[in-house]
């Protein structure tokens, strides 16, 4: 739906002739320019239709972007939940290992304490025996 631009081909041809262009060439140029202008013009209705199609296309792209954003947000939330569950599981395993180590170290410490007590008793007995022997040596001499 083109709207013709008002263009006076006869007036244009006369102006060309006045400028020195041969009459046949001036008429041909005026006719060609008139035809080109008639085809190049766009009607306001054409622009409105184009605007409507572009607006619909933009709205469609916007809707697709929003849909993708929602999907990505849901996927991120899902991954966060999985990571949180895995972290909780690892925390529980770490706590279990710490408790096992505490129990094992507690048993080792108790055994060492018993060994130290035995060694104290043995050193005390050896010291007492040596003192007894020394006393015997010096009192009988």
Q: How can the largest sheet be summarized? A: none
Question: How many structural domains can be distinguished in the coordinates?
Answer: 1
**Oligomer type:** single chain
Mean pLDDT: 89
- What fraction of residues sit in β-strands? under 5%
Fraction of helical residues: over 70%
Unreliable parts: none
The computed structural class is mainly alpha
Rg (CA only) = 53 Å
Order of helices and strands: HHH
Number of helices: 3
Ends: how far apart? 144 Å
- Shape assignment: rod-shaped
Number of strands: 0
Summarize the structure.
The chain has 141 residues and is an all-alpha fold.
Polypeptide structure, described:
The chain has one domain. It is an all-alpha fold. It is built from three helices and no strands.
């Amino acid at each position: 739906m083109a709207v013709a631009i008002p263009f006076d081909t006869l007036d244009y041809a006369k102006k060309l002739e006045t400028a020195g262009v041969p009459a046949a060439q001036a008429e041909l140029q005026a006719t060609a320019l008139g035809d080109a202008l008639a085809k190049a013009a766009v009607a306001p209705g054409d622009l409105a239709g184009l605007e409507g199609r572009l607006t619909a296309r933009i709205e469609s792209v916007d809707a697709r972007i929003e849909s993708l954003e929602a999907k990505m947000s849901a996927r991120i939330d899902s991954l966060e939940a999985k990571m949180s569950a895995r972290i909780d599981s690892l925390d529980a395993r770490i706590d279990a290992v710490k408790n096992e180590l505490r129990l094992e170290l507690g048993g080792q410490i108790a055994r060492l304490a018993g060994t130290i007590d035995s060694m104290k008793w043995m050193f005390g007995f050896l010291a007492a025996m040596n003192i007894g022997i020394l006393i015997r040596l010096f009192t009988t001499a």
